[in-house]
Amino acid sequence: MKKLFLMLALGSVSYFGIAQSTSVNNTPPTTATSNAKIEFVSETIDYGTIENGANGEREFKFKNAGTDALIISTCRGSCGCTVPTCPTEPIMPKQSGVIKVKYDTSRTGQFTKQITVESNDPSGIKILKIQGNVNAPATTPATTPVAPH
Known about the structure:
Blueprint: H1 2-23, E1 38-40, E2 44-50, E3 57-64, E4 72-77, E5 82-85, E6 96-103, E7 109-119, E8 125-134
Parallel strand pairs: 2-8
Antiparallel strand pairs: 1-3, 3-6, 4-7, 5-6, 7-8
């Protein structure tokens, strides 16, 4: 019985390990033959020091410097506090586009987050970065009730 249980446990680990390693594909299938080229104005956005609850929306501007249509297949933030929005339509050669990103500015303190962009650019994946510092929320001084005279 112990041998059977051990064999089943090891078989499960081996099966899931193989399934995960073979299903990972970091490049879109059209990358090898594409002449699309994504070029960003800047790959980092520095928010600087901002107030808690401030507007956390920014844009990464890019252009397609290639000769084929640029197709962005995936855009994802490194956590739930960073939400990117990528174009869904192909970006034609020499045309420009934007990737919008919204950071949750209710989180106090320094931050550095990544946005992973997958496209048919031969490089396959671009990593964009946002960084900054969110001040703690302003507090109102406690008022002491005044006793009547």
